[in-house]
Amino acid sequence: MKITFYGQNSLAIQIKDTHIIVDPFITGNDFSKDKVDIMDLKADYILLTHAHQDHILDAEAIAKNTGATIVSNYEISNHYEDKGFKVHPMNHGGNWNFNFGSVKYVNAIHTSSFPDGSYGGQPGGFIITAGDKTIYIAGDTALTMDMKLIPLQYKLDLAILPIGDNFTMGIDDAILASDFVECNNVLGVHYDTFGYIKIDHDQAKKKFEKAGKKLHLLEISESITI
Ligand code: NI
Ligand code: MN
Fold first, then answer.
1. What's domain 2-217's architecture?
2. Which ligand is located closest to the Cα atom of residue 9?
3. N or C: which end of the chain has fewer CB within 10 A?
4. Ligand nearest to the CA of 113
C-alpha cells in the first residue's frame, strides 16, 4: 500500500491497480496548489471523511475527470448522487468489501456541515484493509475513547492522525490516540495549512520519539509504502 500526501488531509492511496483519493483539498491549499495538478490524479474511489471545505473542495472536479465513485457517509453520498456522481453510501460502524479491500467507516468527534451550511451528516474516519496491511485514517477528530475499539479487531500498520490542534487533536492527544489504537507508526496530517494549525515540526517529532513512536511528516507529493 502506497500513501502519498497532498497537504491537509489529502492523500492518494495506491493498492495494486486501484487508486483512492482521500479528502482532496489541493487547489485551495497554498502548500499544494502549485505543486499538484488535480487533473493528473488517478482515482477509482474518492473517500470523504466529512463535508468541510478543507476535505471536499476538489472532490467534484476529480470525480468528473476520473469517473471515480465517492465513498462517504449517507448524507454526503446523497449530496453527490443528486449531482449525478457515482457514490457508495456508508454509515458509522459499517464495513464494505470493495474490490481492493475492505473499508470501515468509524466514529470521529467533529462536525460536518457543507461549505454552504447544509447538513453533511456526522463526521467519520476510515479503516482500510488490503491484503495483510491495515491503515486508520482518523479524519478530523478529537481524541476519543472509541479509538480503543479499533485494536480489538484490527492490527494497524499505520495510523493517519490529525496533529494541528485547534480544530482537531494536537500533538499530545495524537500521541494518546496512537496508544488507544495501538499503533506507533503515525502519519501526521491536518497541520500548517492555516494560521490556527501551524506546528513546530521538530518539537512534534521529538515528542513522538520520546513516547517511543514514529511521526512521519511528509512533503507535498511525498509517499510512504507500508
Ligand atoms: Ni473539519
Ligand atoms: Mn479539516
1. 4-Layer Sandwich (3.60)
2. 2
3. C
4. 1
